[in-house]
Amino acid sequence: MELINNVNEELWNAIEKSYKEEKYTGAILDAMHFLTEIIKNKSGLDIEGPKLAVEAFGGDNPKIRVNNLQTASEKDTQKGIEEIIKGIYIAVRNSRSYNSETDSKEVCNSIVIFVNYLLEVIHKSKVSFQENTFLLRVFDEYYVPSKEYSDLLVSEIPKDQRGNIAISVLLKRKKGKTENLASFMKSLIEVIEEDDVARVYSVVSEELKYTNDEEEIKSIISILPGEYWVNTDKAVKIRIENILLASVKVGRYNKAADRCIGDAGALGTWINEDYLRNFEDLGKWTKAIIMKLAEGSIEEQDYIYNYFWNEICELNRVNINSYLKDYISQGLTRGYYDVAERFYEVVNKDKYHPWFNVFKNEIAEYESKLAEEEVEDSKTDIDLELE
């Protein structure tokens, strides 16, 4: 019997060298290695041996289904394939990997032909994970935007398909709800490989490279975690950050309506602390935000206080920017109640906050004015002329 005529071409290519050199035990191990790679690729798993057989073919929802799993007979067949593959790892592969066995040509032929049979079964099998079907659940109107639910969905995606799913969601983003997609993408990007993160942000960079459309920009930054923004192409990153800063500079906020006044500044409201932390020049952003507080109208100040004050203070907690430091210092020293109120909202959350020491003298002066009822409702002449 010519083995080459009784197995598929890919399997023969995997064992040919050892087989022709009459290294029959080596040929058996080559066949087992080939079987392992086929199972791993189809299941998306990155494990080997008996555990691979159990994870790929076992359980109520196996990653590889050899039939429809509807009848008792079909379930028995599925279980049988699981046990056979688990057994062949234990009885055939392991014994030859760890012991100095020497196999005859006849034994080699028998085992390789049986491996070929298993490969045919796997080739005809169905993969339980189908991208299009899975995406229906991501864009489901009843999606639950919680970490628990998003983590559960992400756990169903084979490891080697996570990057593709992330890119598909990104490209279809306008079909889903922002809150839902943001929850899903955060859970997904946290577990995908570095190479896949790079692939995702290559797509992000292409999507943002030429656009000036605020809705386009918002549709991307609103669903992706800010901590991964650094993976964006640097030229694209700098340009988009400039567009975002321009939005912040014109932003105004209506307290009564709890929203921006018109569309001005709306894009900037999607910037969170993680994005700010990963922007190219935090100092530039801190200066722009503080200058808006010092020189802007009430609506402009409210915009900053509502969307950026806590974030910019947290990012300057240890090494405080000179503009922010001077703004707080003047506000406390001159007895401006609104500046002091915002300051205390930040530091009173932590009795060990470093700013208690940074502004020790200013705090004492403000509290003296407060006791003497010499404070003003709002700042009137904070003058920032720092370089």
In words, what does this structure look like?
This protein is mainly alpha-helical. Among the domains are: 3-127, no CATH class; 129-226. It is 63% helix and 2% strand. It contains 20 helices and 4 strands. It has helices at residues 9-20, 24-43, 49-57, 72-98, 105-124, 131-138, 147-155, 162-171, 178-189, 194-208, 214-221, 234-250, 273-277, 282-295, 298-307, 309-315, 322-333, 337-347, 355-358, 360-371, and strands at 64-65, 126-127, 253-254, 259-260. The strands form 2 sheets. Strands 1-2 form a two-stranded antiparallel ribbon. A hairpin with a 4-residue loop joins strand 3 and strand 4 (259-260). The longest helix is centred in the N-terminal third of the chain and has 27 residues, at 72-98. The N and C termini lie far apart (87 Å). The mean pLDDT is 93.
The arrangement of helices and strands along the chain is HHHEHHEHHHHHHHEEHHHHHHHH
Quaternary organisation of the protein chains: single chain
| Apparent shape | elongated
Average pLDDT, rounded to a whole number, is 93
Q: Going across the major beta sheet, what is the strand order? A: 1-2
β-strand amount:
under 5%
Number of strands: 4
List keywords for this structure.
mainly alpha; 387 residues; 2% strand; 20 helices
Topology record:
Layout: H1 9-20, H2 24-43, H3 49-57, E1 64-65, H4 72-98, H5 105-124, E2 126-127, H6 131-138, H7 147-155, H8 162-171, H9 178-189, H10 194-208, H11 214-221, H12 234-250, E3 253-254, E4 259-260, H13 273-277, H14 282-295, H15 298-307, H16 309-315, H17 322-333, H18 337-347, H19 355-358, H20 360-371
Antiparallel strand pairs: 1-2, 3-4
Helix pairs in contact: 1-2, 2-3, 2-4, 2-5, 3-4, 7-9, 8-9, 8-10, 14-15, 14-17, 17-18, 17-20
